[in-house]
Amino acid sequence: MNMSEPGCGVAPSSDARAPARGGSGVEVLRVTGEPEVAEVAVLRFRGDDRYCVETVDGLAPPQPRARKWIVNVSTQFGCPVGCPFCDAAQAYAGNPTAEELLCQVRWALARHPEHVGTCGKLKVHFARMGEPSFNDAVLEAIARLPEEIPTPGLWACVATVAPRGRDAWFARLREVKERSFRGRFQLQFSVQSTSPADRARLTPIAHWSLGEIAAYGARFHASGDRKVVLNFALACGVEFDPAVVASRFDPAHFAVKITPVNPTARGAEAGFRTVLRSERADAVAAARDALLARGFDVVLSVGESGEDRIGSNCGQAVRVARPAVRPAPIS
Asked: What is the pTM of this model?
């Protein structure tokens, strides 16, 4: 489905297979998915296949859009991190501008204008393709969101692997949150494992230790805020020790989210299998109970089967839309 988006200058196309073109340099290459779960758009900027992103117009079933609406924004063209289970690790082509980030938001909002001002919780996730902290424009885009979407239901969310060398970015993120999103901001660290060796393999760039994440998160979380989320996408053979989590993190500031490793082409190539849909699922339940006993809020988020069926996991839509651009090899 292509439609007019005045904020981005995207015009509707008469051919559903053809890109919708607009004067501001953004094209809608394709939109796929299921409206009752999520629809993923591949947007091309600057008239060049290198500058493609995925943007998701999603729901949180069974909640209706009027109650909760989730817009996922890509923060980079491709991703330089290279996680071995993620299809976004394709040829990296740099960063979108703040305007290109907001254009993704406008694309989703223009599809359901009747809900923009009245949605109970409209969450803009900077959590699709790319590592948000590698793009300074993400901070500008977050700061501009309240003006773009003047509604009390607006939330902003950032998911990050906590790269080293970006301390100034994270300090500014806290400032933006304090200024514009107190009580309406969700910060998630993609931790993946409690083992340093496993974390190095799963997130193959220099990143903060668990202790550094704990120190920053405790500063970031203020009274009335959502707790900082520690996300573990658990794969078979990857260490997850609730005792390590409890020894490093304070449940007053942190919650734990356990998710599956979603099926992707790179994940299959590397032999990843998710724990949550395996014979070890009972062990995850035991770990959850151990964390609950230590005072942590714990969420087992398996997700909708439709998300796997429609190929809405990170990087999959761009991989299909531009097959000539090959993913990075798995080392």
From this structure: 0.86
